[in-house]
Every structure is written in structure tokens, then in C-alpha cells.
Amino acid sequence: RRGGKRDLASLRAIPWVFSWTQSRFLLPSWYGVGTALEEFVAECPQENFELLQGFYRKWPFFRMAISKVEMTISKVDLQIARHYMEELSQPEDREQFEILFERIAHEYRLVSDLVLRISGHERFLDDNPELQRSIQLRNGSIVPLGFLQVSLLKRLRQHGGAGMIYSRYSKRELLDGALLTINGIAAGMRNTG
């Protein structure tokens, strides 16, 4: 946020995207694509769906756009994202966050289904097995870092307000640990916002 203001106009794009990436939502890169495709297909289901499949096969721009969405949704992990939401939100906000999470999960299922059907893939990135395997391997490191990050952020929030942390670790050690998880997740995701 610019100047410490807490309004929408002061929100900066890079930290906004970065936070969605760290929490494994990657929302800005795919949210709404499924709904847009679904609405287009609904106008004339068979004809428009075949048109999208034809665009994917013959139009490099459309293929690249769908491939980028496919690559980013292959990195989404809604279980980790839910963990961030449940552990780092205020108890009084959880019900609203749950409603929001379900909307996001619905859009994720929708875009996933449509991207796979348009591309003709059974699984994400079937046409790029090297990237598919790379993402699977990196997830082995990113997932534990996500849990560790949530734990560290939670400790910092619970005990860091007064400048003193009542634990066996100093505030500086917890902050350094959190920063290391941020760097590790960013490196593993390979697209940080």
C-alpha cells in the first residue's frame, strides 16, 4: 500500500500478486478465465466449444494464452491455500473467508475443466512433460515451506506487536525464517508476481 493508506486505490500491484503466489492461489493469473470461457461456450455450446478447440490448435496467440493459464493453474494448491486462510485469518472473519474461498475453488474447478477440455489434455501440461515433472519436483520443497511460513507468520503476528516475542526464538530469528520461506517459495514457484 502506498503511504500506509488502507484503501483500494493505494494497493500496489506487485505485492498484491506476490501474496497470491506465496499462498499458492496464483489468483491474478487465472481467476475469471473459466467464467469467461463458460459464458462464451453457453451462447452456442457445441459450435463455440469446437471454435475454442480450433483456436487452440491453429492460433498461436490463443494457444499461448491457454497454455499460460494451464501452467499457472498447475501450480495452484488449494489445500495449502486453505491452510493459509484458516491459520492466518482472524476468527471473526473466517466465515466470510470461507465463502470467498468456495467461490475461488469453484472458479478453479471450472477453469481447470475447460482448459483440459480445450487443450485435449488429460492432466495439466501433458504437452510439456519436462515442465510437468519440474513442477511436481519443486512442489516437494514448496509445500513444507508453505506450512513453515504459515507457522512463522502466525507466531510473528501473535507475539510481535509489542516488540517482544515470548518463545525460544527472537523476533529477528522468526522474521529471518519467514523471509527465507518467502525466498524459497518464490524460487520454487518461478513466477513471483
UniProtKB/TrEMBL annotation:
<dbReference type="InterPro" id="IPR021135">
    <property type="entry name" value="PEP_COase"/>
</dbReference>
<dbReference type="GO" id="GO:0005829">
    <property type="term" value="C:cytosol"/>
</dbReference>
<dbReference type="GO" id="GO:0015977">
    <property type="term" value="P:carbon fixation"/>
</dbReference>
<keyword id="KW-0670">Pyruvate</keyword>
<dbReference type="Pfam" id="PF00311">
    <property type="entry name" value="PEPcase"/>
</dbReference>
<dbReference type="GO" id="GO:0008964">
    <property type="term" value="F:phosphoenolpyruvate carboxylase activity"/>
</dbReference>
<protein>
    <recommendedName>
        <fullName>Phosphoenolpyruvate carboxylase</fullName>
    </recommendedName>
</protein>
<comment type="function">
    <text>Forms oxaloacetate, a four-carbon dicarboxylic acid source for the tricarboxylic acid cycle.</text>
</comment>
<dbReference type="InterPro" id="IPR015813">
    <property type="entry name" value="Pyrv/PenolPyrv_kinase-like_dom"/>
</dbReference>
<dbReference type="GO" id="GO:0006099">
    <property type="term" value="P:tricarboxylic acid cycle"/>
</dbReference>
